[in-house]
Amino acid sequence: MNFLLPIFQQTTQQATSSTSSFLVNLLPILAIIVIFYFLLILPQNKQKKQHEAMIKSLDKGDEVITTSGIFGTVVGVKEDSITIKIDDNTTIRILKGAVASVKKREE
Hints:
This protein is α+β, with helices and mostly antiparallel strands. It has one helix at about 5-55, and strands at about 65, 70-75, 80-85, 90-95, 100-105. Helices cover about 50% and strands about 25% of the residues.
């Protein structure tokens, strides 16, 4: 019977060490998640808010560049789209979300 006592002691020690080992193994994963949040998610949300503010401030006469590289001047603004003049007698209607950058008209 004395030979069973060391076996039971080892199993109880392994149980407590496996719990602490689990927590130690979990820490690097949590650290990576926190790093990704601060390096990727927060800047992306900030950029999205800036783009939405830029889209809301569109007005007639603003010069825009679309995501497809088309340069034009805003001649009409609707709820979800804008009309831009890209050349004499040439206008196209695009979604507001397709605007990549805006240069405000000089007054």
